[in-house]
What we know:
Helix content is about 25%, strand content about 15%. It is of the alpha/beta class. The strands form two sheets. It has a seven-stranded parallel β-sheet with strand order 4-2-1-5-8-9-10, sandwiched between helices. Helix 1 (about 1-15) packs across helix 2. It is globular. The site of 2-amino-2-deoxy-6-O-phosphono-alpha-D-glucopyranose has 13 residues, from helix 5. 2-amino-2-deoxy-6-O-phosphono-alpha-D-glucopyranose binds near residues 53, 119, 121 and 148.
Amino acid sequence: xxxxxxxxxxxxxxxxxxxxxxxxxxxLAAYRDLIRRRQSGxxxxxHARIFLLDEYVGLPPDHPQxxxxxxxRELTDHIDLPDGSLHVPAGNADSLNDACDEFELAMRAxxxxxxxxxxxxxxxxxxxxxxxxGFTSRTRPTTLTDVTRQDNSHFFGGDIRSxxxxxxxxxxxxxxxARCLILIATGTRKAAAISxxxxxxxxxxxPASVIQTHPHATAILDQDAAAELKNxxxxxxxxxxxxxxxx
Length: 247
Ligand code: GLP
């Protein structure tokens, strides 16, 4: 509800809204809510653009676990987003660096991201910016850690060997240029990462900690993900959604 409300506000207040969206399990409840609101005519994506955070390298285009396939299945096939308004880094381009540059150019041409939805990895990653990623990084190819591949093997029948070792990801600096950030986390397995990201030191070892330096960042958490926070309401910036899965 909170996430879908923020997206709905962005869609209704701006003439050409630009959304940055995440894949993974965390935003699925919000995407279901957005589909429902679209189907009841409450909102429209007709003038929107969507930029995904990241994409695997090397999966065939028709593979169900490319992030393009994922977001189509979970959201964009069910809303009125025009063809061509979904931008995903091209993980099977001949030149991955060129693909990343093209993605950044398209984002700039669209006027930058108004609202960026983020998940968080157990190791504190955002997008596929693994620990150690520089805060000045831009969209680029990156190597995935074993923790991330293990966690994402859930989508590949539980087999880590099927999870690509490389991905393209928006950089930290790219993500931080979004005018508003919403980070979603649920479940106890994210509690330590959330505590480090929200209340720990701002450090490249916990990439998500960079959001503490963003002027409009909110973490939307269920009680389990917020369990290790000392002060969940600090400054009113960190919202704890009660009991239910954030949507
Ligand atoms: C993945 C994605 C991230 C996502 C995160 C959390 O590796 N690259 O963009 O936010 O991990 O995933 P989940 O929501 O499934 O826990």
